[in-house]
Amino acid sequence: MSNAGTLITAEASVSAVGPPRRRGVELALIVLAVLLSVFGYCAVGLARTGSVPPGAVGYGAGLGGLALVAHLAVRYRAPWADPLPLPIGVLLNGLGLVLIYRLDLDTPGDRAAPAQLVWSTLGVALFIVVVLALRDHRVLQRYAYVSVAAALALLIVPILFPAVNGARIWIRIAGFSFQPGEFAKVLLAVFFAAYLAANRNALAYSGRQIWRFTRLQLPTGRVLGPIVSIWLLSVGVLVLERDLGTSLLFFGLFVVMLYVATGRIGWIAVGLTLAAFGAVAVGRLEPHVAARIQDWQHPFASIAAGEGPNQLAQSLFAFAAGGVLGSGLGLGHSTLIGFAVKSDFILATAGEELGLAGLSAIFLLYGLLVERGFRAGLALRDPFGRLLAVGLSSLVALQVFVIAGGVTGLIPLTGMAMPFLAQGGSSVVTNWAIVALLIRLSDSSRRPPDEAGKGHRPPDEAGKDRRPPDEPGAGHRPPDEPGKDRPAGGVGAEGVG
Predict the structure, then answer these.
(1) What b-and-e string marks burial along 356-378, b requiring 16 or more CB atoms within 10 Å of the CB?
(2) Residue 176, SS3 per DSSP
(3) Which end of the chain is more exposed for a tag (fewer CB within 10 A), N or C?
(4) Distance (Å, rounded) from C-alpha 104 to C-alpha 99?
(5) 132 — phi, psi (to 5°)?
(6) Tens of pLDDT along 376-429?
(7) What pLDDT score was predicted for residue 265?
(8) 217: which DSSP letter?
(9) Torsion over CA: 395, 399, 402, 404 (sign)
(10) pLDDT category of residue 290 using cuts at 50, 70 and 90
């Protein structure tokens, strides 16, 4: 009996303490990420000039300093956060700087690495601000409609500027340019999470049956309205901005979050049907989109016509030349792709010089980042936090799929940037903000109950009108979650989806 009592007491004490903080593990992984990035930087110099680049020490010190400051911010404000997202972001960002520097050596008149380093610094600074200032993720739920209004404004403004490479997704003023759609996707994720968390019960049910001999049901107007609105928004973005990637990203994000909120797999079918219909319709009407679809269907048509390989064909050649282990950093020829080699097609450089092994490692890093976001969502108790974690993680997953699918010929090519790897200030700053939000969400999900009151309320005490334990009715379901009408899945239940 004494042994059993001791075991129970030990288990109770472990439960009270909660999971280990693992800040030391995070610091060790950050050091490893910085060392790998510096090693890649030195490998490029040795391959091209036979000597270590003179800026290797400065590059390592700069990247290491930024990572250390970010780590200290997490250690101070989010001590219970997951230890993996920050090192993954540091490694991907460091590898992206190495690849851009390598490509700069073949394009001395168009150096992008210095500007990318400045944007990376701004991104880490935003990461630190979010981690320090946002003490409770549920504060964002109050600004749902402000977020969607700002997102729509950011999406509409580029229409007023000239198209760049056929797409109207950039704002260029006095030599300074940025892509507002990158910031809009985070704001839309906040709005979708807040809207679906507030209306998840109504969205989980359908209206009248269409035909008495089938199980197909027509959604009510209240349910169907937001779906049609988001579909029209995504198609509108595709038509006005000629940007297939952003349209697929926004609509895919909403469909995934809608499925997680309701647990109804039918929404996946509805979403895929609407997305396919919109893509086919716009592909027939918009010449720029139609040209990309034509190149996807026949990537080697320009070679057969005697015009030489196009960008997609050169990208496929680069992947093929890389083989399993790659040609080595600095020894590839991916610059033959052309003007978008540092942005849209930077994955082709990674595939050629790092090979299938290196490319698989990169995809595993992205997959691990997405998995840790989903894990944080599963552990959170409030529906808004769950949906926000799933939405942010899905943004990364969808963007990686859309870009990787485009440059490998799986889907039509889009004009989006690979998270952390590709040249693009707006992209790297936004992705650091996503990592910061995932850090905050994971801190809330892993924080033990006795620590939850330090700095913010615990996740299960968010309601301002909660009842005391001795009040009649305490312990029963709240009025907006009746037992017989509660959906079987989704965030309204104990588990996600």
Answers:
(1) eebbeebeebbeebbebbbbbbe
(2) strand
(3) N
(4) 9
(5) -80, -40
(6) 999 998 999 999 999 999 999 999 999 999 999 888 887 778 999 998 888 999
(7) 78
(8) B
(9) negative
(10) confident
Angle at 181 between CA 180 and CA 183, to 5 degrees: 70
Find the Cα–Cα–Cα–Cα dihedral 250, 190, 134, 124, rounded to 10°: 0
Residue 71 carries which side chain, given as an amino acid letter? H
Spatial CA neighbour of 288 closest among 418, 168, 182, 400: 168
Between 113-133 and 425-446, two packed helices, what is the crossing angle to 10 degrees? 30
Residue 217 dihedral angles phi and psi, to the nearest 5°: -120, 140
- For 360, the 3-state DSSP assignment is helix
Mean model confidence pLDDT for the chain: 80
pTM of the model: 0.83
**Tens of pLDDT, residues 12-57:** 444 445 567 889 999 999 999 999 999 999 999 999 888 899 889 9
Based on the number of CB atoms within 10 Å of its own CB, is 481 exposed (0-12), middle (13-18) or buried (19 or more)?
middle
Measured between alpha carbons, how far is 253 from 267 in angstroms, rounded to an integer?
12
> Locate tokens 């042994």: which residue?
3
The distance between the two most distant Cα atoms of the chain, rounded to a whole number of Å, is 86
Token digits for 377?
């969502």
How would you classify residue 306: left for phi > 0, otherwise alpha for psi between -120 and 50, otherwise beta?
left
Question: In angstroms, what CA-CA distances link 91 with 55, 78, 356, 413, 420?
Answer: 18, 21, 18, 26, 9
Query: Rounded mean pLDDT of 341-351?
Result: 91
Tell me which of 213-227, 281-295, 308-322 is least confident.
213-227
Arithmetic mean of pLDDT, 257-286: 77
- Name the helix (H) or strand (E) containing 459: none
CA 187 from chain center: how many Å? 12
For residue 247 the two structure tokens come to 């349209």
DSSP helix, strand, coil percent of the chain (3-state; round to 5): 65, 0, 30
pLDDT at residue 91 in the model: 97
Amino acid letter at 191?
A: F
For residue 454 the two structure tokens come to: 């330090």
Which are the contacts of 49, defined by CB distance < 8 A and separation ≥ 6? none
